[in-house]
Amino acid sequence: MVGGLGLRGRHRMSTEMTTKTLNCSANTLRLADLPTRVAAAAGAGFAGIGLRVTDYLDANMADGEIRDLLDQHGLRVLEMEHNWDWALGEDPVEKAMFTFADEIGIRHLNVPMFAEHPPADLVEPFGALCDRAAAHGVLVGFEFLPYSHVRTIGEAWEVVAAADRPNGGITVDLWHWFRSGAQPQDLAGIPASVITTVQLCDVAPEPGPDMTEEARHRRKLPGQGAGDTLTALKALRDNGMVAPVSVEVFSDELDARPPAEAARLAFDTGVKTLERAEFPAPAWTTTREEAR
């Protein structure tokens, strides 16, 4: 018994919380237009979606129309991605991202680093990006990618810690966790509050010959692959993590399914995975929560 609840009670609470808070990341339904994506995610049970900045710019919808669409389906936007080489200064897409935050609302940005820069040279630009985002009430999660130039959670933490911004943190994508060889002990010394968000997905038993291609086309649904998902989630939970959770599955196989079916598979496997790990997805708010 924990806090007066048995396992069944904890699972019931987990399910209830997850169905109100779990997010569908941008690339899980990456081929769907915005109205289709919103309807599919809401129909599956997701509480929110993620968007690429191009999804916003290419939607050909006014901000008010997007707000109405989200409200009609009871959804919010958790995250937006991404600006590219932010080490060079303000990226041209930032204006659109922050306009979205101000007019429609998001919680955070996911930002990897694909360009080659020494980690020490990223500290000041990351801090500056965080400062620009803070002016709009937005958090920034630095996403480590094993095929990029910040490959591990430890390398991301070095930059985030040195930048030392209250709205700066780390995005933990489980595909990147597994393929970077991350272990629970890698969380030692990283405050739980630094984890901005967790993205659920899984990996094939053997890595592909091209890690970038695999990451963008051949991920598995949560709990449907060879990754030690339960150990990773339990490590994050035991470290005290309270960040919101998304399902992010780049998958050509998932793309081939109707959006409603793909969303339902993503939601169901995401909920099941969180329940097995006794890992409830925490509540979250956006920059426009009060206005919404």
TrEMBL record:
Task: Tell me the InterPro entries matching this sequence.
Answer: IolE/XylAMocC-like, Xyl_isomerase-like_sf, Xyl_isomerase-like_TIM-brl
Q: Which Gene3D superfamilies match?
A: Divalent-metal-dependent TIM barrel enzymes
State a single Pfam family of this protein: AP_endonuc_2
Q: Specify the species.
A: Amycolatopsis rhizosphaerae
Q: What PANTHER family does this protein map onto?
A: BLL3656 PROTEIN, HYDROXYPYRUVATE ISOMERASE
Q: Which residues form the Xylose isomerase-like TIM barrel domain?
A: 38-263
The alphabetized UniProt keywords are: Isomerase
What are the protein's GO molecular function terms? Answer: isomerase activity
What name does this protein carry?
Sugar phosphate isomerase/epimerase
Give the highest taxon in the source lineage.
Answer: Bacteria
